[in-house]
Amino acid sequence: MDPVPVYELETHVGSGKLKGKVALITGGDSGIGKAVAIGYAKEGADVAIAYLDEHEDAENTKKRIEQEGVKCTLHAGDIADEDFCFKLIEEVIGHHGKLNILVNNAARQEVKKSVLDISAEQLKRTFDVNFFSMVHLTKAAIPHLTEGDSLIYTASINAYVGNQALIDYTSTKGAIVSFTRSIAQELAPKAIRVNGVAPGPIWTPLIPATMPKEKQEEFGVSTPLGRPGQPADLVEPYILLASEGSAYMTGQFIHVNGGGFMSS
């Protein structure tokens, strides 16, 4: 990618906010997931990374995480497969002995000019990866979570403002917002917090992989801050939602969008 995404800020020095915790992050090999994985490691958490097949990216991320003196395990597979989702949670428990933080982050998108161009195959795949995987992983994780643990979901500004070029993707993000708020109500009596982050335009590998060159050049520049966000811009919100700093937050979304319009 040119420019290369920024995954770390020099100003972020860990203070043990997540020491002793185990976090599973889907899509943790690159993009927002990679930045969050490194940020969690800096705060003392052991990290499990789920990814599809980008083995080199995953190994590079693992190497960086282990430089923080914590444990990192890699788990390759397709989260669109319900069986893999349940197997993934079992693997994490087997390797780490517990699970405290589940970050449902992995996603896919395809740019289309019209809803008429979205095939049934694309629609199903997008929902399988972006939404149904989160349902499966949540169901698999809940029996292992206890008081003070956290479920965190990655939504999008598109769930609040719409996006005519990403109708299926945007629909999955709207479903994630509703799912998060519903599960938060279910798990509140157990003191398990359920929150999310709704990023605006963030410069990740997903952008050049799915957008035409002309759209990449204008990506994010229309925000009030005049630039796309970097993965590193998301790290602190994810740390907050995983730590005791958000002990009185559940069913909420943090909006990180460069000042982009929000209707909620």
Automatic annotation (TrEMBL):
Keywords: Oxidoreductase. The keyword Lipid biosynthesis does not apply. One of its GO terms (molecular function) is oxidoreductase activity, acting on CH-OH group of donors. InterPro entries: NAD(P)-bd_dom_sf (IPR036291), Sc_DH/Rdtase_CS (IPR020904), SDR_fam (IPR002347). Gene3D superfamilies: NAD(P)-binding Rossmann-like Domain. It comes from the Bacteria. The keyword NADP does not apply. SUPFAM superfamilies: NAD(P)-binding Rossmann-fold domains. Pfam families: adh_short_C2. Belongs to the short-chain dehydrogenases/reductases (SDR) family. This is SDR family oxidoreductase. It comes from Bacillus salacetis.
